[in-house]
Amino acid sequence: MPAGRAIVRLPAMKPSSALPPRRLGALRRRLLAWYAKHKRDLPWRETGNPYRVFVSEFMLQQTQVATVIPRFELFLDRFPTLEALAAADPEAVAAAWSGLGYYRRARNLHASAAVLVREHAGRIPEDPSLLRELPGVGEYTAAALASLIHGAPRAVVDGNVIRVLTRLVALDRPPGRAATDREIRELAQALLEPAAAGDWNQAVMELGATVCLPRHPACDACPWRRECRARAEGTAESFPRRRPPAPVIEIQRALGVFRRGGRVLLRRRRDTRLLEGTWELPGVDAAPEEDALEPLVEELETMTGGPVRIGAELTRFRHSITRRRIAVAAFEAYAHPAPTARGKDRAWVGPATLENYPVSSMTAKVMRALASGRTSR
Ligand code: SF4
Known about the structure:
Elements: H1 21-38, H2 50-60, H3 65-78, H4 82-86, H5 90-96, H6 104-119, H7 128-131, H8 139-150, H9 159-168, H10 178-191, H11 197-210, H12 229-233, E1 249-257, E2 259-260, E3 263-268, E4 279-280, E5 283-286, H13 293-304, E6 308-321, E7 324-335, E8 346-349, H14 361-372
Parallel strand pairs: 1-7
Antiparallel strand pairs: 1-5, 2-3, 3-4, 3-8, 6-7
Helix pairs in contact: 1-11, 2-3, 2-8, 8-11, 9-11
The protein binds iron/sulfur cluster.
Iron/sulfur cluster (SF4) is lined by residues 164, 167-168, 211-212, 217, 219, 222, 224-225, 228, 230-231, 236.
């Protein structure tokens, strides 16, 4: 809180009831005037080209504007139209995406372009429900495309919008619960200027990205400084409210290491969205107090189709993934007949070929221990 400012406690109220018509009019006027003056010059804005907006919205999912800008024009040079993108080779699209990460988005963008050309005559629909049928287009992206390209009166809600709006009304409940998220969506929709939906959505996001920052919001430069309840209370940085941290989960993971020469057998993960497509040592999860070796043998026998014997423990360490604390142990494993790497989902991998296989950090730790010879034996 700035020095010298008195804390003003305002009574709690439902967010959308904070918007009587006069107040709503002032909020809209002030934000749109601020946006007209302060908006950043971004390469997908003001071109009137729906394809540029379409590409930018996929790129901006999970990636900062500053990272997207240099990649955007290069991508557009390579695929200047929706039709060119739809007809492109998937590997060429992935290569042009390099530097942006989260390659699933490149695959979704490519697949969406193909659907638009095939089923919508190369036009990006206005109806958010049609947009949501495109691969990789969720509620946020559908609202963004509909409003930015067609002016459809659909409010977007992303992390920036949530921060700005929860501060504006000092929403005392953490986002992430269905009822609270609904309140925020209703507030965003109630605020939206329907006559300028695209500009409005960009303006709220721009305010969050450049003024209403997570730390040290520049309230004195904010067009909503007079209306903002969190600013009046001097508590802006405490919004959005945070949920209490989820409890830590302790588990153990037992891994089987089949070896051939200097290589080990890896398999491709398929069973979960987490780390899907990465390569791993075969293994099982178990509760901390359970004996993990018996389920490990069962898992390896199912995988190899024959009897498996577990040998010495090769390495043991602790590993964390989000809130899971994992006691990892890798064991020598022997199968009769010897396991094979037939098919696309298994491979014998050694230090020279490891870089060709995306692996999780847990698998990489085991591989490093094996390569160094610093095992627990
Ligand atoms: Fe955010 Fe401050 Fe503006 Fe409120 S006054 S919306 S806290 S920048």
